[in-house]
Amino acid sequence: MQPSDIMIPAWVEGTLTPIEKLEVHHRGLRHLAVSVFVIRDGMILLQQRALGKYHTPGLWANTCCTHPTWGEAPLDCAQRRLTQELGITGLPLTHRGQVEYRAPVGKDMIEHEVVEVFLGQADATMPLTANPEEVMATRWITPTDLAQEIADDPAQFTPWLRIYLEKHSGMILGSRGYRA
């Protein structure tokens, strides 16, 4: 399925409406999204976006992000996308709150998202199988090391990951919070 075939919930003149995903991003419409952070032994699972992604290819992001389809519940969406992108199934997720941000993501596109953020606690036995159409690499990193890498080379990370960690780390990661 191509991004232009997917209808996502976006606000048009104050009304939540199903709109094609690429149109939403080209117009910079405010829309619904989901982000997941998976933590194991105090480390965050990051993914490097596949080079074929329609925006921010090759950049490092949190464990997974997506847009719910029209009528899809945020938790169902988060679990679906964990499976599709990383082969992760059955991981309990905790809702951590809602974040709104607006950021350019290249190719004349803007993400203006109202994001439901989820956190999952993994153990060492959790299977992980990255879908190469979505993810080119994964790695585990401590919040402190991630903060340093973002400070040293922010262009290697998606705008939303930088925003989440700079402005919302306490809500998302709790006591494991990121320190800039």
Short key terms for the protein model shown above:
180 residues, single chain, alpha+beta, 5 helices, 24% helix, two-stranded antiparallel sheet
The run of helices and strands is EEHEEEEHEEEHHH
Instruction: Please tell me what the overall shape is.
Output: globular
Structural class: alpha+beta
Instruction: Please report which band the strand proportion falls in: under 5%, 5-15%, 15-25%, 25-35%, 35-45% or over 45%.
Output: 35-45%
The largest sheet is: 7 strands, mixed
Describe what this molecule looks like in 3D:
With 180 residues, this protein is α+β, with helices and mostly antiparallel strands. 24% of the residues lie in helices and 38% in strands. The protein has 5 helices and 9 strands. The protein has helices spanning 21-27, 74-86, 143-152, 159-167, 169-173; strands at residues 7-12, 15-20, 30-40, 43-49, 60-61, 64-66, 93-106, 109-121, 135-141. The strands form 2 sheets. Strands 3, 4, 5, 6, 7, 8 and 9 form a 7-stranded mixed β-sheet that branches. Strands 1-2 form a two-stranded antiparallel sheet. It starts with 6 loop residues before the first strand and ends in a 7-residue tail after the last helix. The mean pLDDT is 94.
